[in-house]
Amino acid sequence: MATIQDRISKIVSERLGVDESEVKREATFKDDLGADSLDVVELVMELEDEFDLEISDEDAEKIGTVGDVVDYIERHQ
Amino acid sequence: MKGQHALVTGGSRGIGKAICLELASQGVHVAVNYSGNKEKAEQVADECRTYGVEAMTIQANVADSASVQSMVKTVMGEFGAIEILVNNAGITRDTLIMRMKEEDFDAVIDTNLKGVFNCAKAVTRPMMKQRYGRIINISSVVGVLGNAGQANYVASKAGVIGLTKSLARELANRNIRANAVAPGFIQTEMTDKLPEDTKGELLKQIPLGELGKPEDVAKVVAFLASDAASYMTGQTLHVDGGMVMP
């Protein structure tokens, strides 16, 4: 079973068309990975499906970096 | 459009009914939303099925976001996709501003404008995933011209045009198009309520000299939903016998 980090990296790299090696903890979605705001909304939707959880709009707005997502999902699994 | 799935709000009568039937006649499966009249909605669904498509009815008050979310979930469960959303549900509470109660204003805005927001928001998720969607919002000629005695309705319908433009811009790069249709005076229960002298005055303002039929609007809605309109988004098409010439 892949780790949470691996699963997230895979989704992010597929969705944003970046290499998995670029999906580092400190990478920001918008500046480092080139996501627009709709990309982030879509990522959140896909993560909700992958991890079978619901991320509230308030929490989704706070997501800036890959690390934010990993931490959030680890906390809520 | 054959084989696609449409959700039409306020589909049990008037323009909404004509839209359901027009889409069905072009091979689109139709979910007929209604707020109160289940029997009429069932009749529309039955008539849709005579074209050999699937049809379902679904009750929801579009002004209520929870109700809308559950509607979209049910339709997605039944159809598996919603490619076309037609926001048609609308009400009137006509009176002069001096006499208009706050609740008259709110009720019309909640159904006609917030209802469009609620439904568009609810289908955005499946449409974004599909990378395909067509949203058609029904505005009105009076949303462009203004009309005495209809401040609430006019405000809601003008709002729909602005909302359509925002939807179009936000969702364009996900292959979701949003357009509006602004019907003029169309023969429906809504316009039957107008006094005869008002109708006479109205006819003088219509270059084509007669009220429109619900089918006239439905055909333009179907055009916007089809790939014939694939390079159009954010537009308002006027189906009003020439009342507005923008």
UniProtKB/TrEMBL annotation, chain A:
<keyword id="KW-0596">Phosphopantetheine</keyword>
<dbReference type="GO" id="GO:0000036">
    <property type="term" value="F:acyl carrier activity"/>
</dbReference>
<feature type="domain" description="Carrier">
    <location>
        <begin position="2"/>
        <end position="77"/>
    </location>
</feature>
<feature type="modified residue" description="O-(pantetheine 4'-phosphoryl)serine">
    <location>
        <position position="37"/>
    </location>
</feature>
<dbReference type="GO" id="GO:0005829">
    <property type="term" value="C:cytosol"/>
</dbReference>
<keyword id="KW-0444">Lipid biosynthesis</keyword>
<comment type="pathway">
    <text>Lipid metabolism; fatty acid biosynthesis.</text>
</comment>
<protein>
    <recommendedName>
        <fullName>Acyl carrier protein</fullName>
    </recommendedName>
</protein>
<dbReference type="GO" id="GO:0009245">
    <property type="term" value="P:lipid A biosynthetic process"/>
</dbReference>
<comment type="similarity">
    <text>Belongs to the acyl carrier protein (ACP) family.</text>
</comment>
<keyword id="KW-0963">Cytoplasm</keyword>
<keyword id="KW-0443">Lipid metabolism</keyword>
<dbReference type="GO" id="GO:0016020">
    <property type="term" value="C:membrane"/>
</dbReference>
<dbReference type="Pfam" id="PF00550">
    <property type="entry name" value="PP-binding"/>
</dbReference>
<dbReference type="InterPro" id="IPR006162">
    <property type="entry name" value="Ppantetheine_attach_site"/>
</dbReference>
<dbReference type="GO" id="GO:0000035">
    <property type="term" value="F:acyl binding"/>
</dbReference>
<dbReference type="InterPro" id="IPR036736">
    <property type="entry name" value="ACP-like_sf"/>
</dbReference>
<dbReference type="InterPro" id="IPR009081">
    <property type="entry name" value="PP-bd_ACP"/>
</dbReference>
<keyword id="KW-0597">Phosphoprotein</keyword>
<comment type="function">
    <text>Carrier of the growing fatty acid chain in fatty acid biosynthesis.</text>
</comment>
<dbReference type="InterPro" id="IPR003231">
    <property type="entry name" value="ACP"/>
</dbReference>
<keyword id="KW-0275">Fatty acid biosynthesis</keyword>
Automatic annotation (TrEMBL), chain B:
<feature type="binding site">
    <location>
        <begin position="153"/>
        <end position="157"/>
    </location>
    <ligand>
        <name>NADP(+)</name>
    </ligand>
</feature>
<dbReference type="GO" id="GO:0051287">
    <property type="term" value="F:NAD binding"/>
</dbReference>
<keyword id="KW-0276">Fatty acid metabolism</keyword>
<keyword id="KW-0521">NADP</keyword>
<dbReference type="InterPro" id="IPR020904">
    <property type="entry name" value="Sc_DH/Rdtase_CS"/>
</dbReference>
<dbReference type="InterPro" id="IPR057326">
    <property type="entry name" value="KR_dom"/>
</dbReference>
<dbReference type="GO" id="GO:0004316">
    <property type="term" value="F:3-oxoacyl-[acyl-carrier-protein] reductase (NADPH) activity"/>
</dbReference>
<comment type="subunit">
    <text>Homotetramer.</text>
</comment>
<dbReference type="GO" id="GO:0006633">
    <property type="term" value="P:fatty acid biosynthetic process"/>
</dbReference>
<dbReference type="InterPro" id="IPR050259">
    <property type="entry name" value="SDR"/>
</dbReference>
<comment type="pathway">
    <text>Lipid metabolism; fatty acid biosynthesis.</text>
</comment>
<feature type="domain" description="Ketoreductase">
    <location>
        <begin position="4"/>
        <end position="184"/>
    </location>
</feature>
<dbReference type="Pfam" id="PF13561">
    <property type="entry name" value="adh_short_C2"/>
</dbReference>
<dbReference type="InterPro" id="IPR002347">
    <property type="entry name" value="SDR_fam"/>
</dbReference>
<keyword id="KW-0444">Lipid biosynthesis</keyword>
<feature type="binding site">
    <location>
        <position position="186"/>
    </location>
    <ligand>
        <name>NADP(+)</name>
    </ligand>
</feature>
<feature type="active site" description="Proton acceptor">
    <location>
        <position position="153"/>
    </location>
</feature>
<feature type="binding site">
    <location>
        <position position="88"/>
    </location>
    <ligand>
        <name>NADP(+)</name>
    </ligand>
</feature>
<dbReference type="InterPro" id="IPR036291">
    <property type="entry name" value="NAD(P)-bd_dom_sf"/>
</dbReference>
<protein>
    <recommendedName>
        <fullName>3-oxoacyl-[acyl-carrier-protein] reductase</fullName>
        <ecNumber>1.1.1.100</ecNumber>
    </recommendedName>
</protein>
<keyword id="KW-0275">Fatty acid biosynthesis</keyword>
<keyword id="KW-0560">Oxidoreductase</keyword>
